[in-house]
Amino acid sequence: MSSTVTATKRNYPEEFIKFLNSSPTPFHAVYNIKKKLEAKGYKELSERETWNGSVKKSGKYYVTRNNSSIIAFQIGENWIPGNPIAITGAHTDSPVLKIKPISKRKSEGYLQVGVECYGGGIWHSWFDSDLSIAGRVMCKEQDGVTVSKLIDLKRPLLKIPTLAIHLDRTVNTKFEFNKETKLLPIIGLENEEEKSSADSSNNNGCCNSDTKLESSQFSSLQNIIERHHKGLLDLLVQELQLPNVDSIEDFELILYDHKPSCLGGINNEFVFSARLDNLTSCFTSLCALLEASDVDIENESGIRLMACFDHEEIGSSSAQGADSNFLPNILERLTLLKCDDTDVTCPLNRSLILESSAKSFFLSSDVSHGVHPNYSSNYESKHKPALGGGPVIKINANQRYMTNSPGLALVKKLADDVEVPLQLFVVANDSPCGSTIGPILASKTGIRTLDLGNPILSMHSIRETGCAYDLEYQVKLFKSFFEKYSTLENKIIV
Questions:
Q1: Residue 347: CB partners within 8 Å, gap ≥ 6?
Q2: CA dist., res. 355 & res. 353, Å (int)
Q3: PANTHER family from the xrefs (predicted)?
Q4: Architecture of domain 96-257
Q5: How many CB atoms lie within 10 A of CB 148?
């Protein structure tokens, strides 16, 4: 069966811009990925239910955790447990400012919002940017059920102003600030209603004596109206069309750069945006999986799988991070199923996950450092990845990245077949080295792994820079991986 979509007929940069602008949080990113999958015929599975009888050969499925991590896969017609699985991995989160559980702040007539730093952001880049709010809100329904609702206010609401140079002459030579007291956004001016309202906020989350509820109204936590500015809550009620503020149980909201993602440069060769780290790899792996869907699936003996995890920026140790049991559990479920109407009864079936793991391969994809023209001395002299030069294979002798020579041989073969240029990156010996989900999942599963990613500038800034040309390169490479891995895996002997 031949593919009905070819990479050259698609405008990946424009599609990517739309994806970025509609995905201000991991929750939105997973929602948008789900919609793309469902449009291609993928069906949702639940970890709460058995998959016996539900998962079929040639079938296309996805499963989510926390609505911020997602795994999608298609099963080959010739799949049997113990066969190889071709896996791509990415992460949905980025360094951001998150609204604190008690966020109400006031100072000098300004309304301010308490925020917490998430991940290793370049926080000075957040000053003087127009910031909006997005996330999810837990809402009480009339039947007593609490449901999660996505929200994106899509308007400039907050600002973290810098101090004028007249009041700080060192600002251009030494810009230092306290993240607790100076990285505090303003959201409005204190009006008469705010002035007359009793600010019951305190740091331990208990109610003040003058706001104590009757025993029949006992609440284990401060009322949400006491913890957050009424104006902010009113915006949530209006956007979600809720009956009143009492419908809001709680929320997880982040601040994001309101300025839309866009193409830039003389020839529109750049992508200027927040969250390139790492919605880039989420987008390219999704495109590749969808384009590979149904391609020669009748001869496929393996499984084609993409995984996008939350919480990479803070170490991946969560129920939905790469250091959780999410991917191992999915692999175990798949290797315990015959993918037909009968249950697996062989007493040795649990060893099949070990066989599949030994035959499988994981392309751990996170963005890479592109060479900075103004700081070229900060890079290893022979390893300076160029924007537009194709995916970067990341190597580290201390195993901060998982790339080794057999993995290089495999990826080179895939890239040669589809004419995708590759680059190599090694950090200089006198520089620190980041890491990825690659080492985490390699050690957890024993699956052979290689780390790679598209090069960008200003990594972890509120506004990063990537190259539009690299998107198609990575999609083509991942598509080749999904379609060809099961026939290549036994031809590279270690």
A1: none
A2: 5
A3: ASPARTYL AMINOPEPTIDASE
A4: Roll (2.30)
A5: 14
Per-residue CA distances from 328 to 80, 173, 231, 292, 440 (Å): 18, 49, 44, 23, 12
Residue 487, number of CB atoms within 10 A of its CB:
14
Pull the structure tokens for residue 10: 């698609």
* CATH 3.40.630.10 domain span(s) along the chain: 7-94+274-491
d(CA 264, CA 358): 44
- Do β-strands 43-44 and 186-189 pair in parallel, antiparallel, or remain unpaired? unpaired
| Tens digit of each residue's pLDDT (9 = 90 or more) over 389-418 | 999 999 999 999 999 999 999 999 999 999
The count of C-alpha atoms lying within 13 angstroms of the C-alpha of 30, restricted to the half-sphere facing its C-beta, is 26
pTM for the model: 0.92
Amino acid at residue number 115: V
Question: What's the CATH number of domain 7-94+274-491, 1.20.120.1770, 3.90.950.20, 3.40.630.10, 3.40.50.2300?
Answer: 3.40.630.10
Q: From the CB of residue 383, how many other CB atoms can be counted at a distance below 10 Å?
A: 17
Instruction: Report residue 405 as tokens.
Output: 């020579």
Closest CA to 26 of 366, 329, 451, 312: 312
Q: Where in the chain is the domain with CATH 2.30.250.10?
A: 96-257
For residue range 132-188, list pLDDT tens digits in order: 999 999 999 988 899 999 999 999 999 999 999 999 999 998 899 999 999 999 999
Cβ neighbours for 284, distance < 8 A, ≥ 6 positions apart: 365, 454, 471, 474, 475, 478
d(CA 147, CA 484): 42
